[in-house]
Amino acid sequence: MPYLYCDAMKCTGCRICELYCAFIREHALNPKKARLRVERREPAFDKAIACRQCADPPCAKVCPTDAIVRNPKTEIVLVDEKKCIGCGACVEACPFGAIWLHPDRKKAIKCDLCKQCIPRCPTGALWVETSEGSAAKRRLRLVESWRPVMLERIQVPGK
Amino acid sequence: MFKYGGYAGQILDVDLTRGKSVAKPFDENLAREYLGGAGFCSRVLYDEIGPRTRPLGPENVLVITTGPLTGTLFPQASRHVVAAKSPLTDIWGEAHAAGHWGPELKFAGFDAIIVRGRSPKPVYIWVEDGKAELRSARHLWGKDVYETDAALREEVGDGWSAKMLYIGQAGENLVRFAAVMNDLDRASARTGMGTVMGSKRLKAVAVRGSKDIPIADEKKYVKLMDELHAKMLADPFTQGRADYGTPSLVELMNEIGRLPTRNYQTGVFEHAEAIGGKIIRQRYLVKPRADFACLQRCGRYTCVPEGPYAYIGGGPEYETLSCVGSKCSIGNIKSILYAHHLCNRYGMDTCSFGSTIAWAMECYERGILTKKDTGGLDLTWGNHEAMVELVRMIAFREGFGDLLAEGSYRAARKVGKGAEKYVMAIKKQELAGQDGRAQKSMGLGNATAARGADHLYAFPVLDEVGFEKAIKERFSARYLPEIGQKLNPKYKGLMVKECEDFAVVVESVGICKYGTMIPPTFYYRDVLRALNATTGMKLTERELRRIGERIVNLNRMFNVRHGIRRKDDTLPERLLKEPSPDGPPKGHVVELDYMLDDYYRLRGWDLKTGLPTLKKLRSLGLGFTVKHLPGRRRK
Ligand code: SF4
Ligand code: SF4
Q: What does the pLDDT average to over B615-621?
């Protein structure tokens, strides 16, 4: 499942992604209308948080009007604002705190992976990640760390 | 709805004496003539206070304000301005800070807060979405900035979404150079604005908002901002700033002989590398931190993990490293980092703090101050333990700290015995980290700045490392090479005048001097495009330049009413008469009179008195100030 990932080591907490998101998607310069939220905690923690596009989304499960649906082809979870009644059940159900009500419209809004923020992050802290992808990266890192040991044992031509 | 985009359109007017606050509409004409931020302050305070105002009396007015670009997508649009009559300089007082507080004030529906009177008991202001209330701060009084921040967060709820501005104990105890702090480690440091806040018994202003900032030209906006962001990121300076922040200036300034050392006895410090940008990055940097909409991320988050100087928090700027470090001959970096952290917690300007200690250390060296005066403290150059001890002593006005809490100018007058000679201050405020002998434009800029010694009022930096392209763009090639030579006084009047005009525009729209002054990425043209797209004011470049000149002249007239004349636009004797002993500026003093003549001429001010002329004032729409010109001289 692809989702918007933020690298907390790179994120500086500038909130440019929030502002662009709100302006491009909601025509409002207002971070509270953004579909991702930059969290800052001291000491020194900054991270933009957005929807994980869960395979079995708890937000959809609790929605009484079935306004939240996962598109199996794109693997993106979408809110149908026409159906949304603004009860906030999804807001409470999301384990990541990644969905909330629009402050004026009172409809649930969340990241739908439009990717507008990604090229605009000044530190390159945002990208589309999948859990499979990140697991693969981790496996690769592990293997890399064994490399010197392996090289000691294997005859490499030209070495 | 307010006529212009970019503004919240409302001002919060708080009367602490009566415990009341009202929301008032922002005056459209004021917006057009002064924009906001520093410009807004210049006009409001000119109208409301004057020579009879006691800086620490209830009659002083404290203005905290944003600009029309604060909280928008313009690169580094993170700024707010705090202004009042200064208890340190007794004239124009103003300080600025970045962070997330200013933008949040706007999202909460206000462009500015005007604070009057004095509360009978400690209070804080809670602002949320167009509403404000005064709440008791009795339980916060006596707490440092970090503690206050944590306690306030508990109280207003919702974790970190609220933004805080506050004073520490230094402000409560009326240390004359107390800072207004925000977002933990950001400081509106200079001219004692925290002292004014303390005198009003205002501990904090907490804000939270969910309102939009309206944008006039929505269609063009994203494209324009994309373009400006790309331009900012493409500047080679940006990566350097992100990697090192301003601390790397320590090494650079040392190279050009401009790193004030031992109270300006020299501009070359033997331990510069030990307190510079490289070492901080290697050993103490946790990560670079950005303020709102900041692409440059010069903010440092730092940590000394263990030992007597252990802490974790915001790191120092170049100014702190030079004022607390080289000026006091201190090469122990951990002690400087720690003192900076303590100053932030107590809410104190590190520039005046370090400079005042440097003055005391020189007096100690010369026998003017002895252990009897200091209460046993050994003020030998480089004694970092004594320096760290003094942070607390000054903030709480304990013993010898009580004298230093008055700033070097007042302390020297009390001490007498020739101590005044070693005060490195202008108009009663201590110099920051510049030596005008090594960079003449800085010498002039410090002398003419409205808020006393101040490198930021003009922030002339284009001759510092030779920004030839920007010089051509901003002043024309015809002044090269002289204008770009830092040891040459030629054309520095022009440079300072132009830089002042532009710098007040920058501080009035709510953006950072990084990205505008240095690196010189955005000038009038780009600021104007953003300003017009945001506000819909349809200003021309000529009008924008005129606004800058208007604000500088109005600040000047505020000071003129307080008796400021050419004689006050001067530098400490040491910079005028003692030639710099080491490095590239060896043998140089500041040729101040030559540059001042040049400057006044370009300003249209009287050469002999330094008073703005009637003609100049009228041409800038400042006719209402004419009655305050002494003798109403005609020229
Ligand atoms: S734009 Fe990038 S660096 Fe800035 S807050 Fe968002 S993720 Fe973090
Ligand atoms: S909003 Fe939360 S629960 Fe719903 S799909 Fe996204 S991450 Fe999962």
A: 97
